[in-house]
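P.,

For your records, the input lines for the assembly:
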Amino acid sequence: MAGQLKEVRNRIKSVQGSQQITKAMKLVSAAKLRKAQDAIIQMRPYAKKLQEVLSNIVSNSDGSTGLKLAEERNVEKVLLIVITSDRSLCGAYNSNIMKLAKQTIAEKYEAAYKKSNVTIWNIGKKGYEGLTKMGYKTDATYKDIYLHLTFENVQVAAQAAMKAFENKEFDAVEIIYSEFKNAATQRFAAEQFLPIPKAQNIAGAKKADFIFEPEKDALIAELMPKILNTQLFKAVLDGAASEHGARMTAMDKATENANELLKTLKISYNRARQAAITTELTEIVSGAAALQG
Amino acid sequence: MTLEILTPEKKLFSGDVYGVQLPGITGLFEVLDNHAPLVSALGKGNLKILKSKNEFANYIIQSGFVEVLNNKATVLIEGAVEA
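Structure tokens returned:
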């Protein structure tokens, strides 16, 4: 009996220990999430203005540009940029992204995959490990962007993708990432990166007699890579925020579960303790009775 | 005129200024009060904010864009370092 008591006590202790860790991780993620959200908010005005400038140029010209980055070709070679996190313990975040990558390949690029023409550039360690294990052709050049998350580092990856597209190493580039909605929800998305999707009717353009310097087409050619850089940067930032959000929720759940477990453990501890006392009492009483008899 | 300088990482400057000197892709130019609407690409070089006629702030930039409209200049730059 005493042995069982000790066992339960030990379990309670270990559960409490885990709970402390999950609680701490939740707090850390909450702080990191705030920082990641801040970064997204900070870049929004830049991205918005860039779009505005583009729409101003486009609406003041006849539209069509012979831009290399918008050239649509027969899709034979495909590049997927998959953004995951470096660390786990964030619920189903990483596995959901990998699932989406797998699904995208199966649905859209089956033919290319059979000829092993699908390449995956991984941002984030977990996705690299997972997808390599699944047997996809992965590339770890940009795996460690999250270690030093700056615009410059992301830009290098975006530019490499553009260059490869221009050199016809790839005919289509897609980004697979998780868009940040709020701490509890992420939207997993596959977004076309290249060729540049046909310009939707951009609203809010101002008609003004702009002076363009250099002329419009050259400006657009300058502007496009910047917009693409920003697009990838946004995806990476969104990924970071989603990761922390997912981890926060997962750790919150874990702490809750630990609480529940503790409750049942405490009940069985008390029960065992009571049983031990009862047996002891019975022993004493029956011992005394035997002496008297 | 109002000047706003934005980078992908943060808002670098915002406020009323006398003018701004920009390294345009075809050469250095200056935007003063009531400039005509303009969109220009910027190259590598020195961006000089003229806070008043004799008070300056300098940034070294890698590339970017400027849009001038309704007496407001918005500068979008990358790789800015304070000089």
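Two observations worth noting. The first helix of chain A runs from residue 2 to 59. Helices of chain A lie at 2-59, 93-108, 110-114, 125-133, 151-166, 216-292.

Regards
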